[in-house]
Design a protein that fits this description.
With 431 residues, this protein is an alpha+beta fold. The chain is built from eleven helices and 14 strands. The protein has a domain of 177 residues: Chloramphenicol Acetyltransferase, CATH 3.30.559.30. It is globular and about 55 Å long.
Amino acid sequence: MTTLDHNRTRAPGGKRLPFPTVDEIARHCLRDDEPETVHVEVHLSGALDPVRLTAAFDRALHHHPRILVREAPRRWYTSRCTWELADAPDVPPVSFPEPAPDALTRARARSLTRSPPLTAAPPVRLESVPHPETGNTVLFLTVNHTALDGPACLRVLATAAELYGGRDNSPPPAPHAAPHRPAPPGPPSRWTRPARVAPGAPEARPGNGLLVCDLAVPRRPEGAPYTVNDQLMIATARTIADWNAEHGTRRPRRQLRITMPVDDRPRDRTMPIGNGTRLVEVPFSTDELKQSTAALLRLTATRTTALKSLVRPQLGHGAALLAAPYAPVTWRAAATRALRAAAAPWTSTTLLSNIGRVPYPLDFGDGGRARAVWFSAPARMPRGLTFTTASTAGRLHLALRWSRTLLGHGDGAHLRDLFEHHLHATQEEAP
C-alpha cells in the first residue's frame, strides 16, 4: 500500500460548486470550430499494462476528487453555472487506440478537435498509444480547458504513476519566490492596440494546427539575474517581430504584448485542481526589441518579476465583474461574448506558457519514466498562435499551436526555426 492509499479522499458525490470566474468566462465563449482543449503528451521509456493503467488512473481520480466534475443542469433564469462532483467517472476516461504507423499524428489531431464533454465526469481523456517505432507507451491527455488546466492534470497523472509503479513521484521543494522589483520605466501603454501575428498560408479548414519539437535548454550562467523563462520570452517576441517583418505587417510600430500564465500553486498532493493560473501581459516596444540581447534580458527579467508579484484576479477585475451573479447566466453569457468580440483588437499578440522543468519524475516503475513531455494551449483567434514549453530529461519541449484560419503547417515550421535561432542567441549574446 502506498502513502497515497492512507490519504485517500472519497469524492463527495452530488455536491455542487459554483464556477470560478475563469471557468465561467471560458464556458460562455466556447466554439465548436475551435475547441478549448489542452493537449498533454508524455513519452515514456517503457510500455504500460492496460489493466494496471486503467486501475491506477481511476484511483488517481478519486485521490483528486475535484477532477470528477460535470456541469450541472440549470434553468434559463439561474444566476450561476455550477459543477457537480461525481462519485465515479460517468464515462471510461482511459482508452487504448489500435496501433498504426500514424497513431501519434491521429492522437494529436484528436486532442485538438475532440474536447471531452462538460456534461460527463471527468472532463479529461487519457489515451495510451504505443509508439510505432519503439513500442513504448505515449500518453495523451486531452483536457477541456473550461474545467481544468494542464498542470492540474499533470498532477493527477503523477499520482497515477505512483499508484501504477509504487514509486514516489513527489516533486522537489519549490524554489523561494523572487523578491518584488518595481517595473522599469517606459513600458508601452497597455491601452494601445498590440501587434497581431501576420497571416501566413492559412488552410481552408477550421480548427488548430500543431507542431512539437525537441530543443536544447538554453544555457544560463549561474547566478544570472534572468531566468530561462526570460530567455524564452525574448525568443518569442523576436520570433513574432521577424515573422511580421517578413510578411509586411501593416502596423510595424505597434508593440508586442505576450500573455504569460503565472501558477503559484504547490505541486505536491495538496495542489488545487482546476484552472489555477493567473494571466499577466508582458509588453515589448519595437525599440526595446532592437536593444542588445544583454540589455533586453535585464529589462525582461525586471519586468516579468514585477508582473509575477502583482496581486490581482486571475483574468483581471473586468472578468471578475462579468462573472458576478447579478443576472441570469444566459444574459451574462451574451454580454460576455459581445464584450469579448469588442475587445478583440486589444487582445495580446500571442501567449507563451512555460511550464518549466516538469516537477514530477512520472515514474511508472516497470512501465518506464517520462523522457519527453509536451503541452499545447488553445490558439483561438484573434491571437491565433501560442507557444508552450516544458523541460524534462535535460531537453526543452516546444509546442507551437495555431489557428488554421491564420497559419499553415509550413508556417509553423518556419516559426519553429526562428524561435530556435533567437533562443540560441540569448545564450550566445547574454552578459
